[in-house]
Design a protein that fits this description.
- Keywords: Amino-acid transport, ATP-binding, Nucleotide-binding, Transport.
- This is Amino acid/amide ABC transporter ATP-binding protein 2, HAAT family.
- Belongs to the ABC transporter superfamily.
- The chain is an alpha/beta fold and about 240 residues long.
- It is about 35% helix and about 25% strand.
- It has two domains: about 5-80 and about 150-240, P-loop containing nucleotide triphosphate hydrolases (Rossmann fold, 3-Layer(aba) Sandwich); about 85-150, no CATH class.
- The chain has eleven helices and ten strands.
- It has a six-stranded mixed β-sheet, sandwiched between helices.
- The chain is globular, with a radius of gyration of 17 Å.
- The chain starts with a strand and ends with a helix.
- The protein binds adenosine-5'-triphosphate (ATP).
- Adenosine-5'-triphosphate binds near residues 14, 37, 40, 41 and 190.
Length: about 240
């Protein structure tokens, strides 16, 4: 399997604060990899380091076999990397459909019609203003917009954050469908059990270091280890059942 992402020994700082202490991770073609960890573990900083939003002081980032270390975010995105950051940055005053017309047209399987098929809720709400959508619908709209750029690799930062359990399930099912369509995905989640149900492999970060790197199923089956490493709350466990 060829690698979509190879990050090696990332050391990332915000000013004098040393946040990532040698983070290495890979995502293979067609793989869904979960990146887990408690609040403040360094998950978002890892994404930012990969995207070139915060340039690591040491270490290397390779995307599709090309060294992108220190390259600006638009160059990284242009290689075919979609990034859906935390916090659903959609246009509240535009309708769903208008939001989907914002990204430039790109070649590939994802068109406005195919994303409506993936997200029937958005199809039903074509004419609703973004600002009037529920949290879950806004998350779907953020993901839909990223898909329209036809990325080869999608990075999702905590898509379940702040959503009701039933909506979390729906968003996660959609992530599963994108994987089955062949998309390579790095899924950053606090909701560890749900992420592990979908993921092939997982990394757990703690204080800016990788403390688990292995099969998702192995970690999911070891609940004590999960709680110790990722600080998984019982609420997250309950959502699954
Ligand atoms: N702009 C910043 N300047 C200084 N420190 C920051 C900045 N952004 C984040 N940090 C710190 O870096 C550490 C890692 O934060 P990061 O956002 O990467 O964690 P996270 O695992 O994504 O957590 P969360 O789930 O809360 O988003 C935290 O201690 C945080 O306080």
């Amino acid at each position: 399997m060829s690698a979509v992402l190879e990050a090696e020994g990332l050391q990332t700082y915000y000013g004098k604060s040393h946040i990532l202490h040698g983070v290495s991770l890979t995502v293979g073609e067609g793989e869904l990899v979960a990146l887990l960890g408690r609040n403040g573990a360094g998950k978002t900083t890892t994404m930012r380091s990969i995207m070139g939003l915060t340039v690591p002081r040491e270490g290397r980032v390779k995307l599709f076999g090309r060294d992108t270390t220190g390259k600006p975010p638009y160059r990284v995105a242009n290689l075919g990397v979609g990034y859906v950051p935390e916090g659903r940055k959609i246009f509240g005053h535009l309708t769903v459909h208008e939001n989907l017309l914002v990204p430039p047209q790109t070649k590939g399987p994802w068109t406005i019609e195919t994303v409506y098929r993936l997200f029937p809720r958005l199809d039903e709400r074509r004419t609703s203003k973004g600002g009037r959508l529920s949290g879950g619908e806004q998350e779907m709209l953020s993901i839909a917009r990223a898909l329209l750029l036809n990325p080869k690799f999608l990075i999702l930062d905590e898509p379940s954050q702040g959503l009701a359990p039933v909506i979390v399930q729906e968003v996660m099912r959609t992530v599963g469908r994108m994987k089955s369509e062949g998309m390579s995905i790095l899924l950053v989640e606090q909701n560890a059990f749900l992420a592990l149900e979908l993921a092939d492999r997982a990394y757990v970060l703690s204080d800016g270091e990788v403390v688990y790197d292995g099969a998702a199923a192995t970690l999911a089956d070891d609940r004590a280890r999960m709680e110790q490493l990722a600080g998984v709350s019982h609420a997250a466990v309950d959502i699954r059942h």
